Amino acid sequence: MFRCIRLRSVVHLNRAVAIAMRDGPEAGLTHIDAVLEHGELANYYPAHSARADMYRRLGRTAEARSAYEKALALTQQEPERQFLQERIRQLKLKKSAD
Fold first, then answer.
1. Contact indicator for 75, 45 with CB cutoff of 8 Å
2. CA–CA gap between residue 19 and residue 12 (Å, rounded)
3. Would you state the pLDDT for residue 32?
4. Per-residue pLDDT reduced to its tens digit, 30-75
5. What pLDDT is stored for residue 94 in this prediction?
6. Which of 3, 7, 13, 24 is the most exposed place for a label (fewest CB within 10 A)?
């Protein structure tokens, strides 16, 4: 049962990302936040990474960095860790340039 609920939540997350592609990051963020509110994906790093990307695209650097750091804390896979660390580094550079 839990697996079915989580799978359904991942489908909703994917839908939220598709909405962001169609309607923009604000719309996508609204849907991602709704998915995360249910709690099934609270420890699913791609959800936090997607949320971070919406914040980044909206120019909300501090929130993006926080969400990327949450995603980073949730994954042990080195390629994903490197990607997330690079995004965090880019946000730090952007902040120091502002």
1. yes
2. 10
3. 97
4. 999 999 999 989 999 999 999 999 999 999 999 999 999 999 999 9
5. 79
6. 3
Rounded CA separation 6/86 (Å): 28
2-97: in CATH 3.90.226.10: no
Alpha helices in 1-98 (DSSP H): 2-23, 25-37, 45-57, 61-74, 78-97
DSSP state of 21: H
pTM across the whole model:
0.90
- The Cα 56–Cα 67 span in angstroms is 10
Query: Nearest-5° angle of CA 44, CA 47, CA 86?
Result: 100
Domain ranges in the chain are 2-97
Task: Please state, as a whole number, how many other Cβ atoms lie within 10 Å of the Cβ of residue 27.
Answer: 15
- Mean pLDDT over all residues of the chain? 92
Give the type of residue at 14: N
